[in-house]
Amino acid sequence: MLQTLQDKFYGNFIEDNRWEYILDGLGVTLQVTFFAVIIGIVIGFLIAIIRSTYDKTGKLKILNFICKIYLTVIRGTPVVVQLLIIYFVIFGSADISKVLVAIMAFGFNSGAYVAEIFRSGIMSIDNGQFEAGRSLGFNYVQTMIHIIMPQAFKNVLPALGNEFIVLLKETSVSGYIALQDLTKGGDIIRSRTYDAFMPLIAVALIYLVMVMIFTKLVNMLERRLRNSDH
Amino acid sequence: MIINGDVLIKVEDLHKVFNNRLHALDGVTEEIRKGEVVVIVGPSGSGKSTFLRSLNLLETPTTGHVFFEGTDITSKETDIDRHRQKMGMVFQHFNLFPHKTIIENITLAPIKVLKKSKADAEKQAMELLKLVGLEEKAHSYPSQLSGGQKQRIAIIRALAMDPEVMLFDEPTSALDPEMVGEVLELMKKLAHDGMTMVVVTHEMGFAREVATRVIFMDEGKIKEQGAPEEFFNNPEEPRLREFLSKIL
Prior knowledge:
Chain A is mostly helical. In chain A, 83% of the residues lie in helices and 0% in strands.
């Protein structure tokens, strides 16, 4: 029993340096997730500002309309389809790195969700805070930066952390454009060794550990922000 | 006591209509002179808060003009932020910044808006805290303070901008009764030091004692006004008589 397990482990990971599929795949997954998160935050932040400025003041009507279309399309279609469209339709004839395509697809996708998270955070702050800022002579942007955003960010941190956990796991569909991420790496090993158990369980465990570490980090940040406010 | 200082705020035929229906302000014309303490009273829904909030344009008037130190601040070309710096405002619900300490609450605008150095701003903040006897709360957070303490901090936060006028929007209405006194005490002190003040309140004792002029508003209009003695002892308007009989 133990001997077969050992053999299987050897065949799946050691033989022909197959562990490299996992390691390289992990690198790609982390790379895609990291940059997609950054794009997501930037897009989400901008959209949230535009949308809540429109909600509060009625300005930026056209930009708000464009943002709404973006949100509707992105949230109304599956991320895999978006990934395929970006790779095969938009960049169909261009020679472009698959990693870059994945970063864009997941970043644009995440941006739509982050935007609504940020916006709900901004709208959750009592309007009195906004008025207090303006009455002290802060302009709209300064009020947002110094008074509204820090409070909004704290309120949405759990939802934001959750969104990035979802994003990390969603990148596992990158194989659809033949990008060798973590999931695809495990799957390649399975196709070589005809053993599904070992590589897929290993892949699952790695995702699980990453999510657990990330959750822990978010909780720590949450606690630190809460300490400064009681 | 009639104050004949320069006109600080001038309001011309102000109208405010909410949602195309509610006529909160129905043609208000008024002047606030330097050194005056004007108390505005009236039943709820009379437009007194809307009027006060129009003075620094937290409420944008539908039509009409507000002049501050001679500048039409309702004009689109006016940089309203610059004028708001000189108009301190105190709210019913304090609106302290919960994510900042007390001293940060007070120094935030002087540092970011007036570009004061941190040291200068903090020195001034400590003096103001001393004025209200709350120096030891400098590094506490708003949630650790009582309502009365919060409101006194809100007042000195506005004072830290060295305003020309202070606007008070029902500053004691959200307080427990035993905390009203400490806030009114501070407001009296400001009045005695010559601060121009416009106060919307239900505290008739404060109006009698401190106001240089009392204004009665009803249905979006100024119905009667005068020196406190005259105002409270010989009200002419029937609506004012009715109002006073209900609250005194």
